[in-house]
Design a protein that fits this description.
The structure is a single chain. A two-stranded antiparallel sheet has the order 1-2. It has helices at residues 32-36, 48-100, 106-139, 146-162, 165-178, 183-195, 199-212, 217-230, 233-246, 251-263, 267-280, 284-297, 300-313, 318-330, 334-347, 352-359, 388-398, 406-414, and strands spanning 2-3, 10-11. Helices cover 69% and strands 1% of the residues. By secondary structure, the chain is mainly alpha-helical. It is built from 18 helices and 2 strands.
Amino acid sequence: MILCQQCTHENPYNRETCVVCDARLLIITNTPTAAAYGGVDSLLRPTLEEHLLERISSLESQLERAQDRLELVLDLVHRQATSGLYDHAMLDALVEHLSERGAVEGGKLETLWRDRIAEHYEEASEQEEFDKRIERMLGGFGGENFDLFARLLDTGADLVIEGNAKRGIRYFEKALVLDPANVAVALFVGEHFFRFNKPVLARAYLEQAIQKEVDNYPAQLMLGVICGDDGDLDSAKRHLGRALKIRRNSFAANYGLGRILVSEGRVREALTHLKRALSLKPTPEMHYLVGRAYLEEGRSEVAVRHFRRCVEMDPKCDAALYHLGLIYLRQENLLLAQEHFRAAYEINPRESRYRTALRARNAGQLAPLPVFGRAAVSKRKMVSSGDVRLAELLRSDLLELQNPAAEVRKGQKRG
């Protein structure tokens, strides 16, 4: 016989469901082995065979239920895909009809549609990253009043999402007071002030972060840039060097350290870092910067190759054209020099040095553009100063350190 696992009623051996409650019968109790021990009483003396049979029967039932659920999910996915296909076909027909009547531009509309979808996915990804950062803050709590800490983070996060980042960050600062050793909160607050160009506050919070986690790459990198621009070159080199030990292929760390070394006259050592930064981001701006470093070292022939490559990639790079003209003038090739000076002036007529260059007849009358600072003259803005496009290239790389939520980005724009 088979005992029902729900109502314990005895059922004939050939039944699959209980005659009383209609439940599926899983446990067979009247096996040959059990009969040798007295039939139903063998339940008091279970054997290995019965135990395995019970587990196998239960597993079969669970697999059947899982299969049923999967079939339902597959059916739902199929319906959604079919519905999406019909919607897309309808939209294609609508756009085609409107395009024929000249009401819309089909290509432009499709481009806008794809951009909107890409923006949606980007915002969803950034929101997910923001939520993960909040979870890391909560997971790293080591203080005493967790409930108050969590409420402060929730309030601050809501304000950031609403676009009020300035007010929201104050709640994160209050939360950090409750847990000064929370690296995730200190890094978030420090990064916020770094983005809003408040280096003094950013440095304080970032230093608080690396006190507990010295190998925190974003904190070390941002501290290197802040110290370099503040004139504390020894600290800047220490932080940037530490960042490179953590992440050797860091564009911003190689870029910043290379610029500081050039300012100290250590051009050959700087070129190692600048060329590595160029390999990481082979942009026209980096070809221009490496060319300027070679020009600083007196290797004009190598500098010319990088300046030419820069102009090939971006014909509107007036600074590279100017330095090519300067090198040709030093080589006493006046015609070629004037050609490049004129091209630079036509691109940027507001630059007074280009007008001066057009009248120059010898290289002694001209000087290279001030891309690199001089540590002996001024130690301020040693990393981010100089060419505007170089500064923007560095900033874009730094802002990629932590992918902020879309709401944080909106908060910055409103703030």
